[in-house]
Amino acid sequence: MPKIAIVQAGTVLYDKAATLEKVRKYVEEAAENGAELVLFPEAFIGGYPKWNNFGITMGTRTPEGRQEFKRYFNNAIEEHSEESEFLENLAAKNNIHVVIGVVERQASTLYCSVFFYSPQGYLGKHRKLLPTALERCVWGQGDGSTMPVFNTSVGNIGTAICWENYMPLYRMTLYNKEIQIYLAPTVDDRDVWLSTMRTIALEGRCFVISACQYLKSSAYPDDHALRKEYGNDTVLIRGGSCAVDPLGTVLIEPDFTQETVRYTEFDLSDITLGKMDLDVVGHYSRPDVFQLTVNEEALSTIVKK
Amino acid sequence: MPKIAIVQAGTVLYDKAATLEKVRKYVEEAAENGAELVLFPEAFIGGYPKWNNFGITMGTRTPEGRQEFKRYFNNAIEEHSEESEFLENLAAKNNIHVVIGVVERQASTLYCSVFFYSPQGYLGKHRKLLPTALERCVWGQGDGSTMPVFNTSVGNIGTAICWENYMPLYRMTLYNKEIQIYLAPTVDDRDVWLSTMRTIALEGRCFVISACQYLKSSAYPDDHALRKEYGNDTVLIRGGSCAVDPLGTVLIEPDFTQETVRYTEFDLSDITLGKMDLDVVGHYSRPDVFQLTVNEEALSTIVKK
Amino acid sequence: MPKIAIVQAGTVLYDKAATLEKVRKYVEEAAENGAELVLFPEAFIGGYPKWNNFGITMGTRTPEGRQEFKRYFNNAIEEHSEESEFLENLAAKNNIHVVIGVVERQASTLYCSVFFYSPQGYLGKHRKLLPTALERCVWGQGDGSTMPVFNTSVGNIGTAICWENYMPLYRMTLYNKEIQIYLAPTVDDRDVWLSTMRTIALEGRCFVISACQYLKSSAYPDDHALRKEYGNDTVLIRGGSCAVDPLGTVLIEPDFTQETVRYTEFDLSDITLGKMDLDVVGHYSRPDVFQLTVNEEALSTIVKK
Amino acid sequence: MPKIAIVQAGTVLYDKAATLEKVRKYVEEAAENGAELVLFPEAFIGGYPKWNNFGITMGTRTPEGRQEFKRYFNNAIEEHSEESEFLENLAAKNNIHVVIGVVERQASTLYCSVFFYSPQGYLGKHRKLLPTALERCVWGQGDGSTMPVFNTSVGNIGTAICWENYMPLYRMTLYNKEIQIYLAPTVDDRDVWLSTMRTIALEGRCFVISACQYLKSSAYPDDHALRKEYGNDTVLIRGGSCAVDPLGTVLIEPDFTQETVRYTEFDLSDITLGKMDLDVVGHYSRPDVFQLTVNEEALSTIVKK
Amino acid sequence: MPKIAIVQAGTVLYDKAATLEKVRKYVEEAAENGAELVLFPEAFIGGYPKWNNFGITMGTRTPEGRQEFKRYFNNAIEEHSEESEFLENLAAKNNIHVVIGVVERQASTLYCSVFFYSPQGYLGKHRKLLPTALERCVWGQGDGSTMPVFNTSVGNIGTAICWENYMPLYRMTLYNKEIQIYLAPTVDDRDVWLSTMRTIALEGRCFVISACQYLKSSAYPDDHALRKEYGNDTVLIRGGSCAVDPLGTVLIEPDFTQETVRYTEFDLSDITLGKMDLDVVGHYSRPDVFQLTVNEEALSTIVKK
Amino acid sequence: MPKIAIVQAGTVLYDKAATLEKVRKYVEEAAENGAELVLFPEAFIGGYPKWNNFGITMGTRTPEGRQEFKRYFNNAIEEHSEESEFLENLAAKNNIHVVIGVVERQASTLYCSVFFYSPQGYLGKHRKLLPTALERCVWGQGDGSTMPVFNTSVGNIGTAICWENYMPLYRMTLYNKEIQIYLAPTVDDRDVWLSTMRTIALEGRCFVISACQYLKSSAYPDDHALRKEYGNDTVLIRGGSCAVDPLGTVLIEPDFTQETVRYTEFDLSDITLGKMDLDVVGHYSRPDVFQLTVNEEALSTIVKK
């Protein structure tokens, strides 16, 4: 009966230290409440600067937009870094799994990633395969080498970030790795998100947990143009975190009103109840008609011989 | 601006003639109301004998169950048959497209199929690829040779029957054929069906139209055991037909109370509004990571050399 | 001694018919002046809606932005279409090669492409491999199957669009196909563009011809927000078309002041003068140290078996 | 904010001692002016005997040319040598990085190399991969084992010598090693060199620093035929050293008139401004289409088992 | 008892037609005299412009030199070309093997090659692996894919061009392919050449046949600077063609005075006389101590996936 | 300017003491004449019993032949022995390098070796890798552990014995060790030997010194059958010692008439004159095509674990 905490909160934009402090606070709170795994939303570290446009229009990037990007870049973290060690220690100290959306920096490109930590240490990461819309101007694309499903004491866990949840072939890949707890960190706060989560739970016969940011305009620094334009209290991302069981039953209904931590607890063996009549990577597949080839090699422009 | 009629009704079980008469009635009604296409539910001709078990338990089939199957078999239709001509004429006479779920008989096997007719004649069919649960004891499996998307004056139309809607790779195949109006005849009357339809509309950026049977126990013949057990007014399938646009907006909300015909009308070019930021067979795909091979050959156990 | 015409002009935005008429006018003018090939800028058909943002900020696309995208989508052309035939006829009638930037539509995704026509007919196309910044939200990515160099009566011609010119591995691919006349349609009107063109000419030992749009705010329709904001005479793209020979000598200096057609004529055999001491795909390469593998297969998410 | 000194000066040809003295003078001057790194031109030690032909025509080498080569050979230095220690001490004593073009002797072959020294000691070297034109008769080819990018307190530094700057695959290799300060010692004094440096800065989003020799005919010994022919004041190499930032802005304009030391100072974090919209080894690459294999093994005709 | 003709003659420089005519004359003469194979010197087609420097000194290539190179480039031939067909027909018509040095053009790089023709057609080629001295500025390097030994009716034939004869590892490769008639087209007219040919015959236990050009300054066109400088009668290459048997006996002594065709006839089975006590790829080898790895792959900077 | 003495003399067969005395005499003579190194022929100590067959025919060894072998065996010397000390002292006392061919005995096998002594002591040895013809019946094979090139005050010295000079891969190994003075003790007195020595000098760009025995039938003991058959004055080995410089110039012409000591003196730095255009282990190699792996391990049938 794993107990999961879902953090519905927002980044302190462009303030990595304050954001990490917030992470610490929520991890400790989740642990105190008996959670074995705590899920943070997409891009929690690094931030999702909603309504920002980085000075980008067709054919131009303004100097101010470039400066904004640099500020954003400097608040991203690397896979092997002081910040990652901080998270690793946090997971160990609180004896909890931490799964958290981060803006990851490798060399000069940013990625929208999720880092996984168990109490025993760093497990690995997933990089978003396809950023959506303007995200394509700030984040690069992940490849097939970071599509893990980890077998942990909590269950088999993996992740699809935001609109990756609309990529049928990526979902199939996760189902095929026997995912049990499907973690969906996001910033998508539409009403319809819950429908999507239920459908994935039904289709994949897994538990689906989604953590969405709750972000107000006060998250931007005082001196930021959007802060000035929208004041402190405009809701930029309204939350909507939720959880669904393998038969589509909603375990946690969305709350669109506040920063909050939600908890859910369930029995993994209930997955079997659902797989009885639908198993899209087992008896409910047609390998004679459909065959999906997945390339899990790292794609690198330059390789050493 | 195609106008679509959705028939939410039930078969007259084991009475092909009466069922065809019912088809005629609804096609004419739809045409009179200006519809260019009318969609019937899954297995409308031939029927979906809900709660029947055909005398099948683990290890046994009773003689009575075999007789029941024979009765069911005799109410199925062939692709090239009198009944099919009847439907063809109906479509021509009423200048309407007819898409209808049928129990199809080929040699000695039954299939759960959908037949397509335009005012110009018979277009072709789709056979359900994977029957669900006990259906596997009465229907065979279709293969990759009947997965059409037809380019008609109404738009590009194709179909996924009932839980085929939970087959991600089949859906990808339809999206790839540039389906615009995704037709989902079904007998699934759960609450959660709407969530699934919305998710498919969002994922595929297409219009999704689902027609579900509304079937009462009175549909069984007077002499049938289930009629005797449940009387006339037990609701076996409660409907729930619906329609959704490519951004997930519900165009027709489910009605779980009655036999009815529902109408919807929309602008196909709105698909572009949705494809702008999600096109899972175009800019929102990763062919370098995922490649789906689809076998559209007819599978036949015995072939001439 | 091929004579090349370089059209420095702008699209009539969201008015395909008027744009095609403009194409006709310039093709005829170029032919009358004895040109054997006429090069149009990037996205000439379909247009480059400079300073437009399609209502896209981090995390949102506005309904108005989606409508704008639909309008843009409808002004794109397909590879095999009426508009393409129009261009084919134009090339034939005027006995000239036409190389033109177009916004290409395939199914529901747009691409930034270049179409090639000889007097004998359509030759083929190149699709931009990597859109830049906001372009990534409106155009998909081409793949290795459209990287042609055509052997024509004018010489061996190929193209790199806008910032593809900063992709060293793509340039290597073109050099390896023995490109002689390197066509660089663009909307990049920075001062530094000429430096880049000279460097490519020097590096590839080829003639480099770049055509840039000259676009004023009057190109937007009367009712367009940007037209209202900027009036008729704001210069959105200021031109800067140029031509360089294989030793880096500038044949045509940029003109940043007007719509214009520029002409250049040169002797292809002068390429040898440059290859004498630099041939990066021949004697000036180190295949024992560097080996570039190029995948020219079409990448398709779904393939028929 | 690293401060870089660029030495634009010439070798005292065939006089190693006098040349080393000149190196000492410039290193001290650079250090006094606060530079953290000083870059010398190509072949500064050993020399670039411009306009010399070593008695080589097609099919012949004259005895006099061989004697000239021997003189040249004797003025080359080895990697581990007294001269190298001299440079090491110079760097340490003046607390400065020294990057210097040398003619390197290994066994009986000469190489055009660059040696790197930090205040802490010798870092390593790069050997020119492909000599140009007549250089091929006096210098051998380096291999993939000497293509370093060093992470120093000044930044990540590496080098491409003279026309190696026209080798796209070598440049890609340096970019991939996260070069920040791209050092381009050269003897190329053409006008067009600046265009090339700007393009590399733009393409690689790095700071590009080029040091060119300024060499007059008086650099040849009194008894040398070219000294006699050209007198003391003929300019053999006219300089043109320059520096460019990652957005292509020229930080130091070429001076073609004199021996001089130029200084530039910049903020490495500005690289991010440029990488935002172009990162050819990150988000602006297509590893699914282009893959470059780099062999960094030392190539040796004879290896011990 | 194969009979071999050795053509000691010179190219008509920069006059491909006249050179081919000369080839025709000598092939016919050789055939009339009963030869089964005729060997021409290095670079016979395309020419060896002795004492030319193509305007190359350290650091410069003059415009005149580039023009000269272009002239030279235009007189080279391609592998599959009209000129090659001419040679093929000549071999067929005269029922003779033709082995001839050519300057080969592929794309924009020249190579010093030898083309082999039997009476049955074109056999293949060898490209010089390492040009010498100034040749490195006009010819590229061949690779391991063109190191053939052909089994013909005359015997097993292969070739090493000019100073390739000083490459022990290439010679080993030819010996290992069971070369019987080692063909050494050259322009090396030193006295010591005969010593080298004898040593190779002794070492490889094969028949060695060397054809050297005999070239006078009149071979340059009237308008050429070297023609003007040296008049008509300066001997640029003085010949010295020779033949040696496997025990080092000189079969044809060099003639340094004229254009001439020399003939030799021998018994291939005499090779066994020599292999008895020396077989460097057989009993006289030490594979436990020395192992030579030969890479016969074509080296290509760019390869299709 | 090393001065080398070449001893052209013969062993006193089967009389070790007399032979050592002869060695002493020639070493002193050489030292008096200012030589810094004295080279003796192959097998000088131990002897080369020319025309002897040791009673060996196919399938038989006679008892007399066995006795002859025993006599020969007893006149061989060991590496660490009284005789070797004698030589060591001789070198020290006369302040000269001694390089001498010996028949070396280890356990029960004989080897054809060369021992090297400097004035400072014993340097090491080389064992012939492959005896020729009947030598294979009296001498074993050396291995890769004795292929030294010694860096001495005279220069870098190494050796190839007799027909080892026809082993291209062994020569490559010596060149690779930067041999400067290539010592070739031999008993090969054919005319063609000089050609071979010249070719090696040219190929390796080194000074080649060859010392051949001058041996008359009187060298056999009075009681020996061959002495009886040929008398005292039949010339068994006629000399032919020689020296060549790196450009192939003969420094000492062979003398085929007498026992003699020849002297040569040269400038090692002239090697650079030759390496300028040929360096088969440097710029004139193709490690991408040919790679020679050399096993310098001692080969021993029985080894301790």
UniProtKB/TrEMBL annotation, chains A, B, C, D, E, F:
Gene3D superfamilies: Carbon-nitrogen hydrolase. The active site is at E42. Residues 2-268 form the CN hydrolase domain. It comes from the Eukaryota. GO terms for molecular function: hydro-lyase activity; nitrilase activity. Pfam families: CN_hydrolase. InterPro entries: C-N_Hydrolase (IPR003010), C-N_Hydrolase_sf (IPR036526), Nitrilase/CN_hydratase_CS (IPR000132), Nitrilases_CHs (IPR044149). Belongs to the carbon-nitrogen hydrolase superfamily. Nitrilase family. This is CN hydrolase domain-containing protein. It comes from Caenorhabditis japonica.
